[in-house]
Amino acid sequence: MKIAPSLLSCDFSKMGSEIERMDKAGADWMHLDVMDGHFVPNLTFGAPVYKTVRKYSDKPFDVHLMITDPLKYIDDFADAGADIITFHVECDSPVDETIDKIKSRGIKAGLVIKPKTPASAVFPYLEKLDLVLVMTVEPGFGGQSFMADMLPKVREIKTECQKRGLDLIIEADGGIGEDTIAQAAEAGVDVCVAGTAVFKADDAAKAIAKLKSMCE
Ligand code: DX5
Ligand code: ZN
């Protein structure tokens, strides 16, 4: 299992050193949540802020766009140093065109589904995608409870990929911690985002190691 700490739970006054801390603690990816106060009822940061912290780790930067019109901002996040960009299938941008735009910048592309969206919503795009992110909370805030009833969607997507001979990464985001990660692993999740569970732990390295060990 790969662990992607969500910077949404970091100390924003020292984002650079928080990224360094996660890098040293054994994070596999850095997960950066972008919210526009429209697609979700919360605001975070945009590409200019993330560009300034890119230098604090060589690990892949996994940018999760919770914004209404992601297509408009792909170039900005590409220029800021994103390695992976995921956006919501429920957004207003044309999905095919947005995936193409991400890939044209040499970045891995992923689609995200909210809890009320069925797994089948991503099926038309599977051939073009590198990754699918299944939300295990309603997007917008850290620290919410894990929705175990989202895991059948992970299995459905895995099965569909196997049927088509595709090897996509499945990521899960929201409410993942010591009590929930084993279920996600068992369902076939490859990468778990973890905000609260890692940033609020006394020892981030221990927390990440523990999360990984619970998936073995
Ligand atoms: C929620 C974000 C998540 C969130 C996860 O909209 O996409 O990445 O920060 O935080 P925890 O792990 O605390 O649920
Ligand atoms: Zn996220």
Q: The CATH topology, please?
A: TIM Barrel
Distance between the termini: 8 Å
- Low-confidence spans: none
List the total number of helices. 8
Which strand order do you get reading across the main beta sheet?
1-8-7-6-5-4-3-2
Rg over C-alpha atoms, rounded to the nearest angstrom = 16 Å
Helix-strand string: EHEHEHEHEEHEHEHH
Q: Which ligands accompany this protein?
A: D-xylitol-5-phosphate, zinc ion
Do you know the CATH architecture?
Alpha-Beta Barrel
CATH superfamily placement: Aldolase class I
Please tell me the overall pLDDT: 98
Record field, number of beta strands: 8
- Beta-strand portion reads 15-25%
Structure description:
The structure is a single chain. With 216 residues, the protein is an alpha/beta fold. The chain has one domain: Alpha-Beta Barrel (TIM Barrel), CATH 3.20.20.70. The mean pLDDT is 98. The protein has helices spanning 15-24, 47-53, 74-80, 95-104, 151-164, 181-187, 196-199, 204-213, and strands spanning 2-5, 30-35, 61-66, 84-88, 108-113, 131-135, 169-173, 191-194. The chain has an eight-stranded parallel β-sheet. The longest helix is centred in the last third of the chain and has 14 residues, at 151-164. The protein is globular. The relative contact order is 0.17. The chain contains eight helices and eight strands; from the N terminus they run E-H-E-H-E-H-E-H-E-E-H-E-H-E-H-H. It binds D-xylitol-5-phosphate and zinc ion. Zinc ion (ZN) is lined by residues 6, 31, 33, 64, 173, 193. D-xylitol-5-phosphate binds at residues 6, 8-9, 31, 33, 64, 137, 139-140, 142-144, 173-176, 193-197.
